């Protein structure tokens, strides 16, 4: 039975405020409640089915009923909802004797007001049987209440008593893309306590009286389970409960529910009183609870040890359903999608504190839009706009409708913001354009009649990016996409300021990264300077590369792209610092265990030991906004291993294991699952690798066919 102690008929907040509150409750249970660890309960559907009642809630009573519907699948005996009114405590006159004697040598010890005193404990020596009334008369117990209760019990048992251990879930978020580096979901079991008998201990029949105002102590459960005591429960509006609890505020109410479970070596410990009574807050021999305790202590006293226990909850990796059959989900499922996206990022996005706007506000705005969207595209767009506020360049929203709108084709042209102008910076292959009408360094004025600068500005707000440069980079990429087989009309202007129109086809091109002219992957430049393009270097070519560059004075590593897993092979030949570890990754761990709330798992990259002769020359790395993720990780590894100098513009500032959230309607949202820091602990996320020498491409350099960044790196090498 679930009772709701809700006072008054005060109007609750509107549905717009109820759903964010419900999101917090749903999210807390999703990642911490033990009953949701193995995936048997469809927690998504529980929220969807409670959604109509939540949206219709206009009073605390309505909200309480809706919350009861939501939480019902958990079958949680600890669930209770109340509006903050103080619980009715046992009626106990301060200063009354704590120890009373009843017929038959039964000692009644009143522990309503606090902890037992040594005199009270000594006074129990003559008792043949005991009734210990634990029902509180004060709002809060003394801090050492449980310890003092253990000391009392130590005088009342003749063998060691093992207490239940607290057990909590630890959630680590959606599965990463490429295996685990951090920690998967798990259970955390705390150490159990053991009460040892005192030197003068003597076991006697005992009955404990408890009620619904506070959890039943673990030592009482252990005594009952060992067959040494019985429990009388005097219940009021709620059931008695045990085990760790947590509280979520919900529309002016407190919703309390299980934070974990109690376990012993042979299974879970469940609370079952030997007698359950209706509310009777009286104390003393005439009260119903004491009379029930006396009856249990009668001649038929035969408490039984409880050996059979339910199996504890079992953690199972759960793949989130994408509900692909819902091409366009219904209203409740659309709201679930917004709540689910918010929940994952609220709990598991490690760089949330670095966001420039409120994630809670993003949820409220998206929930409001979910009631007005008209089709699958508008639905996906609402989620995309919400995700854009995460400020993480690994965040991308995919769905069939969104992908069709973006287009899978590319023009094979690289465009960059150079000295405030949108210029052609590269072509993916020689066949793009006719070589006369499209040239590197051309200003891009418009695309299909739309001013190109305005086109980028229109798309940029929907791009999630760690830095402003990253936002422009990705907005340009989206601006250049279209449907394969169609064509785009580009309006260009070159150094001659003549306006030209070029029509280019959209095609699916495997390699979109710009080529670097005709420069070899490995090149020896004037001044005995080596150049290596890490965007094209393959792992199997690293040893041969070092044979070529070993005797040069400077090694320039061009990382204005994406590496192909060459990191450890490079470090094995560059680790002149003898570093054993590099960047530090942080993974959010979510648990209801108070001492571990906000916990993060920190782990360092392990740098392999040297393999072969170490390169002894200077090392320079070229970077820009295209250097992202693995490229940035390699840069941070290098700075730990060798005195590398970075030349160019800041990198993208987005690193960390990519994970993906699946949402109804086949919508997927990727994000950075780890927050990566420099080996010395400096913040990296949203900053990127900051160059020692800041230099960017220029209009004149592009049009003249020069690489301004590489040229500056060569001068820097010669200056040192």
From TrEMBL:
<dbReference type="InterPro" id="IPR029045">
    <property type="entry name" value="ClpP/crotonase-like_dom_sf"/>
</dbReference>
<feature type="domain" description="PDZ">
    <location>
        <begin position="401"/>
        <end position="453"/>
    </location>
</feature>
<dbReference type="Pfam" id="PF03572">
    <property type="entry name" value="Peptidase_S41"/>
</dbReference>
<dbReference type="InterPro" id="IPR001478">
    <property type="entry name" value="PDZ"/>
</dbReference>
<dbReference type="InterPro" id="IPR005151">
    <property type="entry name" value="Tail-specific_protease"/>
</dbReference>
<protein>
    <recommendedName>
        <fullName>PDZ domain-containing protein</fullName>
    </recommendedName>
</protein>
């Amino acid at each position: 039975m679930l009772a709701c102690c809700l006072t008054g008929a005060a109007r609750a907040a509107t549905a717009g405020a109820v759903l964010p509150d419900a999101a917090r409750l749903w999210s807390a249970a999703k990642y911490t409640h033990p009953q949701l660890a193995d995936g048997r309960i469809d927690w998504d559907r529980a929220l969807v089915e409670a959604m109509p009642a939540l949206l219709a809630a206009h009073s605390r009573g309505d909200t309480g009923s809706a919350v009861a519907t939501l939480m019902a699948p958990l079958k949680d005996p600890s669930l209770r909802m109340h509006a903050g009114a103080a619980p009715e405590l046992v009626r106990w006159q301060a200063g009354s004797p704590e120890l009373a004697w009843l017929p038959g040598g039964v000692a009644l010890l009143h522990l309503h007001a606090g902890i037992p005193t040594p005199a009270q404990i000594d006074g129990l020596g003559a008792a043949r049987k005991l009734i210990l009334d634990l029902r509180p008369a004060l709002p809060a117990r003394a801090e050492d209440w449980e310890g003092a209760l253990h000391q009392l019990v130590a005088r009342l048992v003749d063998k060691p008593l093992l207490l239940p251990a607290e057990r909590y879930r630890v959630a680590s978020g959606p599965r990463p893309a490429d295996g685990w580096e951090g920690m998967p979901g798990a259970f955390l079991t705390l150490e159990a306590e053991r009460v040892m008998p005192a030197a003068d201990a003597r076991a006697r029949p005992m009955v404990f009286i408890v009620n619904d105002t506070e959890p039943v102590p673990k030592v009482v459960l252990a005594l009952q389970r060992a067959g040494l005591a019985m429990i009388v429960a005097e219940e009021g509006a709620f059931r008695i409960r045990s085990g760790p609890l947590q509280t979520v505020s919900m529309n002016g109410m407190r919703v309390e529910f299980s934070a974990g479970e109690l376990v012993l070596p042979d299974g879970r410990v469940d609370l079952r009183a030997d007698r359950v009574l209706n509310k009777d807050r009286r104390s003393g021999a005439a009260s119903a609870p004491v009379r029930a305790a006396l009856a249990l202590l009668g001649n038929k006293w035969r408490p039984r040890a409880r050996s059979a226990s339910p199996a504890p909850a079992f953690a199972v990796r759960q793949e989130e359903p994408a509900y692909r059959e819902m091409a366009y989900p219904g209203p409740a499922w659309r709201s679930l999608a917004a709540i689910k996206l918010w929940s994952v990022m609220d709990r598991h996005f490690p760089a949330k504190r670095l966001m420039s706007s409120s994630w809670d506000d993003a949820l409220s705005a998206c929930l409001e839009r979910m009631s007005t969207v008209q089709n699958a595209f508008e639905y996906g767009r609402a989620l995309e706009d919400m995700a854009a506020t995460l400020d993480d360049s690994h965040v991308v929203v995919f769905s069939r409708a969104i992908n069709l709108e973006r287009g899978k084709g590319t023009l094979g042209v690289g465009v960059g913001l150079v000295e405030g102008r949108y210029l052609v910076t590269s072509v993916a292959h020689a066949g793009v354009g006719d070589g006369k009408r499209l040239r590197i360094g051309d200003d891009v004025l418009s695309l299909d009649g739309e001013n190109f600068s305005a086109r980028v500005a229109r798309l940029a707000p929907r791009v999630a990016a760690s830095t402003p440069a990253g936002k422009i980079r990705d907005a340009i990429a989206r601006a250049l996409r279209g449907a394969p087989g169609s064509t785009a009309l580009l309006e260009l202007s070159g150094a001659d300021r003549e306006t030209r129109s070029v029509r280019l086809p959209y095609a699916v091109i495997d390699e979109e990264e710009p080529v670097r002219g005709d420069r070899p992957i490995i090149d020896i430049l004037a001044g005995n300077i080596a150049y290596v393009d890490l965007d094209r270097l393959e792992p199997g070519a690293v040893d041969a590369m070092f044979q070529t560059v070993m005797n040069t004075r400077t090694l320039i590593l061009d990382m204005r792209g994406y590496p192909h897993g060459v990191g450890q092979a490079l470090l094995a030949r560059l680790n002149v610092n003898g570093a054993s570890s590099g960047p530090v990754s942080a993974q959010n761990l979510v648990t209801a265990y108070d001492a571990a709330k906000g916990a993060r798992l920190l782990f360092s990259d392990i740098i392999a030991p040297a393999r072969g002769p170490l390169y002894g020359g200077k090392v320079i790395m070229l970077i820009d906004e295209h250097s992202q993720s693995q490229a940035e990780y390699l840069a941070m590894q290098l700075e730990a291993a060798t005195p590398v100098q970075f030349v160019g513009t800041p990198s993208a500032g987005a690193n960390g294991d990519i994970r993906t959230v699946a949402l109804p309607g086949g919508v997927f949202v990727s994000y950075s699952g780890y927050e990566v820091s420099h080996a010395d602990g400096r913040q990296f996320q949203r900053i990127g690798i900051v160059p020692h020498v800041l230099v960017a491409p220029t209009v004149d350099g592009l049009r003249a066919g020069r690489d301004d960044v590489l040229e500056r790196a060569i001068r820097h090498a010669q200056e040192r």
